[in-house]
Amino acid sequence: MFSGVINLQRILQPTTGEAANIVVPHLDNLLKLDPYLVPYQDEIRRRYHVFQKILKQLNTEEQGIDVFTSAYKHFGIHINHETNEINIKEWAPGAKAMYIHGDFNNWKEKQYPFTRDQWGVWRITIPALSDGSSAIKHGQAIKLLIETSDGKLVNRICPWSRYVQRAEKSNIYHGVFYDPPNNEIYQFKYSQPKKRDRLKIYEAHVGISSSNEEIATYENFRINIIPRIVKQGYNTIQLMAVMEHPYYASFGYQVTSFFG
């Protein structure tokens, strides 16, 4: 059954002895290129062994890595634009009950309860209003209300949220229903680069890419940094801190939402 989650606790057990005889492709070549890695070759084998176990579980239980990493397409909150029904799907096996509330229903706590299946997946469908429009409008704040195992009610932001915003005059964040009209959706102007046979990745942070005491811009990065990266032979750039984050000194690790 595809759940979009896997049991990492079961997989990430100490496996040093078990992995000692694992054959890692091209490991000998790697150790020749970088002899400083020789003392860590057992750990490399262990990590490769764990990777293989996770990959096997994804293939046997989750229909493969491509399907598993596309879980955001059906988890979280989604609207059917043909009917304007809103479908919400969450995974919370430890919850006793779950509800959705927000601006759309004046934050009434238990008006919209979810139903739970045997896998700990919670679902709800909110029908369109009598005028045919969706019950939750673009830009409205929403939160999950979860009843914990000890009976407490706690508010939580949907982990699949596409947009998260801090409430005005408050340090509390809300999920925001994101369904902009078509004319507000960004349309890509350029085609994607051709897929490389091998990646040589340069990790970079646009905001700290200047030697000046300032937050650098994308324009600065385009003009001054990318040519240097290309000149060094890299063919792929991994950008840090692309997702929205409230605290700039975190370099983007403390994000407001993984899917924003």
Automatic annotation (TrEMBL):
Q: Which Pfam families match?
A: CBM_48
A Gene Ontology CC term for this entry? cytoplasm
Q: Which organism is it from?
A: Adineta steineri
The Glycoside hydrolase family 13 N-terminal domain is annotated at 75-160
Task: State the InterPro entries in the record.
Answer: GH (IPR017853), Glyco_hydro_13_N (IPR004193), Ig-like_fold (IPR013783), Ig_E-set (IPR014756)
GO molecular function per UniProt: 1,4-alpha-glucan branching enzyme activity; hydrolase activity, hydrolyzing O-glycosyl compounds
Sorted alphabetically, the Gene Ontology BP terms of this entry are: glycogen biosynthetic process
Identify this protein by name: Glycoside hydrolase family 13 N-terminal domain-containing protein
Q: Which Gene3D superfamilies match?
A: Glycosidases, Immunoglobulins
